[in-house]
Automatic annotation (TrEMBL):
Domain HNH nuclease: 47-101
Organism listed in the record: Kitasatospora kazusensis
InterPro entries xrefs: HNH (IPR002711), HNH_nuc (IPR003615)
Keywords, ordered alphabetically: Endonuclease, Hydrolase, Nuclease
Lineage: Bacteria, Bacillati, Actinomycetota, Actinomycetes, Kitasatosporales
Pfam families: HNH
GO molecular function: endonuclease activity
The protein's name in its UniProt record: HNH endonuclease
Coiled coil: none
């Protein structure tokens, strides 16, 4: 998971969503009322999907696992818990069908004492405050109760394909950085930029971000990445803010 920037709503869409929320309130908020209202909101859902596509990582990847295509508008706090958030723009994230329907469903763990939710909202907080990605293994470590709950709900470590994909992505990132450095040194700037763009759109954006964050600790980064890859990353970061921690 990586932090995401949520774009503002257009005034017309914001007014439409507010009107639909008031209709749910007037009808007596319930799971059935909320789900029926959402099911019938074809036009606003299409517009929300466009905005979510803009803020999704990579090439429209799931905002939770980062691996699969984001196909579903997920309600971060499920409609079953709060029907009045059915049309709350800040409650919408883009998920793959597996994360949305097989893993999360209506799960929304909360702290038993404070009642605060225990899932990471990547549009409101930095997942790196709660999760540490080990690049060599492809596994996550939960640093906080919120990190642990997020790993559990989305099976980030027990879905073997996700762990393997993160390991492979780390191999790809290192190879692309080394090749970028070679092309740049040879003066082939167009080809180098194409490789940089490939890195920006990597299907596992959390892997690239973990690599970039390593540069905060240069000795560790050079050990994990190797001298050539580390030099390439530092050079690229000096030119492009996307690659700065």
């Amino acid at each position: 998971m990586i932090p995401l920037q949520r774009p503002p709503l257009q005034a017309q869409l914001a007014a439409d969503l507010a009107r639909r929320t008031e209709a749910i309130r007037a009808a007596g908020p319930s799971t059935t009322i909320g789900r029926n209202a959402w099911r019938n909101a074809r036009e606003p859902k299409a517009r929300l999907r466009q905005l979510l596509h803009r803020m999704a990582p990579g090439l429209v990847r799931c905002m939770y696992c980062g691996d699969n295509l984001g196909t579903d508008i997920d309600h971060f706090e499920p409609i079953a818990r709060d029907p009045l958030r059915t049309f709350d723009w800040h409650n919408h994230l883009l998920a793959c069908a597996y994360c949305n329907s097989n893993q999360k469903r209506d799960r929304f763990p909360c702290d038993p004492v404070t009642g605060a939710h225990l899932l990471i909202d990547p549009a409101r907080e930095d997942p790196a405050d709660h999760l540490l990605l080990y690049l060599e293994s492809g596994a996550y470590q939960g640093l906080t109760p919120k990190g642990l709950a997020t790993i559990d709900v989305f099976a980030l470590n027990t879905r073997a394909e996700l762990v393997r994909a993160r390991r492979l992505a780390f191999t790809v990132v290192r190879a692309l950085l080394r090749e970028w450095h070679t092309l740049r040194a040879d003066g082939d700037l167009a080809a180098a930029e194409e490789l940089a763009d490939s890195l920006r759109l990597l299907w596992q954006a959390d892997v690239l971000r973990a690599v970039v964050r390593l540069t905060r600790n240069p000795p560790l980064a050079e050990t994990v990445l190797g001298p050539t890859t580390f030099t390439a990353l530092r050079t690229l970061a000096a030119e492009d803010p996307h690659f700065r921690p």
